[in-house]
Amino acid sequence: MVLEMKVPSPGESITEVEIAEWLVEDGDYVEKDQAIAEVDSDKATLELPAEASGIITLKAEEGDAVAVGEVVCLIDTSAEKPAGGADASAEKAKEAPKKEEKAAPAEKAPEKKETYASGTASPAAKKVLAEKGINPQEVQGTGKDGRITKDDAVKATPSLGTPGAGSRGSERTKLSMLRRKVAERLVSVKNETAMLTTFNEVDMGPIFELRKQYKDEFKTKHNVGLGFMSFFTKAVVRALEMYPAVNSMIDGKEMVSYDFCDISIAVSGPKGLMVPVVRNAENLSFRGIEAEIKRLAIRAREGEITVDEMTGGTFTITNGGVFGSMLSTPIINPPQSAILGMHNIVERPIARDGAIAIAPIMYVALSYDHRIIDGKESVGFLVAIKEALESPEELLMDGNAKKALEL
């Protein structure tokens, strides 16, 4: 019996996927539930498991876009498993090109030996031109019969616009479906929203002190690091509760506001930018936030993240600081209405209590949709985040850091 394997629907609103990589070859014997391919949708990369055991026949090439429900391979379930399994198949593949008649070598054409007399440049001139990266054909010789002398080579200069001796190759590769979808979404956001960005700076000194004091104990007890993301997530949740319009989005002619905080965290993965969601962040402790971010980041980087884990966020945090970014204007993650950009932390001089002090400063940016968020709300929201991060024990930990960190 021959089973037709069709592309399953990886999620709502997804109509096609792209074959990113076949993990088996045409004619291989596959076991039921064995991963046979990786497919890219516009939201995630997923593995395609074999629906039965048998000999597989591939019906799509890597890079092909195939519609959901389309046949991508056939599995002959009546075929018997080869003796020795995968080892036998590998041995067979090695033996295939074993005996091939070798074509008689073509007669070697006699080499044309170039002499000084027949050449265009003297050996010394050629050496000088090679060092300069100049093609001898571009130099007008003044020697006998137009030959290039060493003096000609010394005086020669590359013409403007003439390529040097280095490589000038190029390569054309097809964008993955995920990357193409991200590009479409980013362009549509710029075109369809009234996006503005407001900035502020945060003195990270108080958070540095808390981490220095408790991070070892926190790591030992909870088996997860005490990073900056839990403080930022807590600060965002507090600010969203103070400014609910930021925790809203437009649906047609209506504004939909949420009484929960599903925080999308931008993570760089092997297939591009992934944005997994920390659900109900308002109910999570510092330990809970750090553990969930770690779990989602690992799944994203290993290509195991699912569509469901990346959908439904109400607000996004992105951290360009891990790559060294000082300042940026992050693009809103649709259909959300705002995104917070974190950046690198640099020691800078600031005014504190009437004196100049050196402090670890981070610039933060809030991009927002001005159609539903006014300037007053956006600035107030970012100030609320600044206040919480500069007074974390008081505003994020109810005055008791050890209790908040469950130590």
What this model shows, in words?
- The protein has 407 residues and is of the alpha+beta class.
- The protein has 2 domains: 2-83, OB fold (Dihydrolipoamide Acetyltransferase, E2P); 182-404, Chloramphenicol Acetyltransferase.
- The chain is built from 10 helices and 19 strands.
- The chain has helices at residues 86-95, 123-132, 150-155, 177-192, 205-222, 228-242, 286-301, 375-390, 392-395, 401-404, and strands spanning 2-6, 16-22, 29-30, 35-40, 45-49, 54-58, 65-67, 71-76, 195-203, 248-251, 254-257, 263-265, 267-269, 272-274, 277-278, 315-319, 338-342, 345-352, 355-369.
- The strands form 5 sheets. Strands 9, 12, 15, 16, 17, 18 and 19 form a 7-stranded mixed sheet that branches. Strands 1-8-6-3 form a 4-stranded antiparallel sheet, with no helix packed on it. It has a 4-stranded antiparallel sheet with strand order 5-4-2-7, with no helix packed on it.
- A hairpin with a 2-residue loop joins strand 18 and strand 19.
- Helix 6 packs across helix 7 and helix 6 crosses helix 8 (375-390).
